[in-house]
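Job type: complex structure
Entries:
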Amino acid sequence: MSTATFRIYRGAQGGGEMKDYTTEVSEGMVVLDALHGIQADQANDLAMRWNCKAGKCGSCSAEINGKPRLMCMTRLNELDLDKPVTVEPMRTFPHVRDLVTDVSWNYRVKKKIKPFTPRTPDAPDGTWRMQQADVDRVQEFRKCIECFLCQDVCHVLRDHHKEESFIGPRFLVYAAALEMHPLDTLDRTEELKEAHGIGYCNITKCCTKVCPEGIHITDNAIIPLKERVADQFYDPVKALVRLVRGKKA
Amino acid sequence: MAEYETFEHDVLVVGAGGAGLRAAIGAAATGAKVGVVTKSLLGKAHTVMAEGGVAAALGNADDRDNWRVHFADTMRGGQYLNNWRMAEIHAKEAPARVNELEAWGAVFDRTPEGKISQRNFGGHRYPRLAHVGDRTGLEMIRTLQDHAVHQGIDVHAEVSIVALLKDGNRVAGAFAYDRERGRFRVFKAKAVVLATGGVGRAYSITSNSWEYTADGQSLAYNAGAVLQDMEFVQFHPTGMVWPPSVKGLLVTEGVRGEGGVLRNSEGRRFMFDDIPENYRNQTADNEDEGWRYTQGDKTARRPPELLTRDHVARCINREVKAGRGSPHGGVFLDIAWIKDKIPNGAEAIKRKLPSMYHQFKQLADIDITKVPMEIGPTTHYMMGGITVDGDSQMTNVPGLFAAGECAAGLHGANRLGGNSLSDLLVFGKRAGEHAAEFAKANGAAAIDAAAVDSAAREALSPFDRAGGESPYHVQHELQSMMQKLVGIVRTESEMKDAMAQLVGLSERAAKVGAEGNREYNPGWHTAIDLKNLMTISEAIMRAALERTESRGGHFRDDYPDKDPQQATFNIRLRKAADGSMSLSKETIPPIPAHLQEVIEEQKS
């Protein structure tokens, strides 16, 4: 059995430092396995989040060798083990301890988005009819495991900290899933433009690149939403109609 | 009592998986003030890992299906040790609970008519599982989560309960700490719903997440509630066996529902060799018929790969022991072979089983559209748990309710796939509503200051022993011991050995230390959870030693046959006055004639 060194951020409320741990590694291991070994043998109090260890719950988000990834889905054979593997917390969110960050802002943002509101049922028994082809695109968005890696990598949040005026890629995907849901009756375009700040996104696609679920965040969610906003608020013909009628067309 | 931050709720729900969230929604709908406590962040609970689907006799894929068939299937799968009232309620109410999710935004896969699609699963006579590819659990938890946050429910994320508080006989609340700061909290509640899930972390090879440390079962037991059917642990037949770090990770039964077959190293479909008598009429006797069944041919019977989980797991175990296993100690599960049977086979596999495709590709470098998977049994589900009333889900402790995996009754000796997701919806709702009703009928209870102080002292004791043994080491040893001696095949001598070893491990567990401080300290949390695992491991062993027969998830090598005499009782465990675990056999009440009739009519 060989060994590898992991350079892990240790400390609380941002006042930490990188610390090296060397541990045994074997075939097929992922970063989370190595950290579990370190936690059991060398650092019982190493703080990190994880639940399913199967890429389904989105808890173990971290920055591995500088890249936002799930620790449970990052295999060691993809990494250069000749030098230390760095493991750091997501930088966009307030630091709590070691690899744990305060992601509660995400939950507050989601609550502000108008919830799903279906049309009246299609059948007398209270059920609806939808074709698979009509739900395919919504199902892509609903694959999201809320790991918040897209929020972590988004420069509007990471560098400019526009948390008060921009909801970030995760919640644009969430809004898209509601807007494109065949049964939903609400229109969220105005909020997307104003309170949700969709205009801040300048489609650099960093979010799409880090999504562990392979959701086409930019192309399939954000751009179509931007088009709806443009259509509703910047279409000259519609603007004229609005001017004449004095209300939203 | 020292000063602790105190929260007051009419109903406190412990756990935010499917059962907990559905209970909270149910309680809040009555106007009750509801709080939900979860060890993790919201939306991360174990429900998220459920893959195949939620069982409900909607009759969308086959109009011959209805509650009677679902009820009879559930009872047969549970070897008639089920609480028949729960099985009846479950079969009748599951369709409404699934349709309700659609009203809250869930997007299930569709039939050509635009209805919710349903797939085949083991032990279900007709295609019955509503699903979203192989990520049904994620769809369910996200739907419940997104709905719940708009119902005025208080969510206490990353908070762990260390003890239930009582006022005389009745429940009065719970004592907890928040993981982030390590500070204690007192929850005053008129009713408490436990929805904490299972016990899989008592074993080393498991499909369960770290959270499954038997918290609810142990909290209830220590508060005077009764546990039952603890000998019935479900070993899911198909977990990954390689690479070592993912050993136990679930491979959905949906693979077999979509036409996947099991083969040994000789290429033989060994499941045809051992079809139990009570399933013979419903099971295909040749490969072609089995294939036609998976493709929706209503005249065909299901392939033997879709027999119940307990049976399939034992057959796999037998092949491996006989030296006919795969290179890494499992057998082969082949879905790639259907490529030749249907157009665009590889694409169809990826569309129907996307998570499985990615899981094997990313974690094992294996393309399941090209080569067979290697799989073997993995600890998956606890059929037993807290004894509850079938209608209200209340335990014998007034005001204390339990729902979902931590409760017992619905599944008897073996659970059918898909019945857990419907279980948590049906009984989550009922537990929440009945808890709210209890809260309304019974005013506030008093908090016992001495009990709070003693719980606080005990919770902090690992810090007094800094430098003591690592809690992880004791946990790992317990897991290996349970896996080896109280696993899928059991004998009296091995379990007695396990019982002796457990005494030593419990002593060590009482001496483990915690390093560092109280802020987000997983070593400390593990030291606390370890006690729950010890309690529940003892319960499993005692019940398993007592049941001297093989039935459902419980297989005794020294008593390999079913004993009709033992079909008449459930084994129950409670904490005796002297603190020891006492065991009794509770006769199952006779099944009413109208339900017996349903069972008989479905036997053909």
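Summary: Chain A touches chain B through 62 residues (CB under 8 Å). The two ends of chain A are 69 Å apart (CA to CA).
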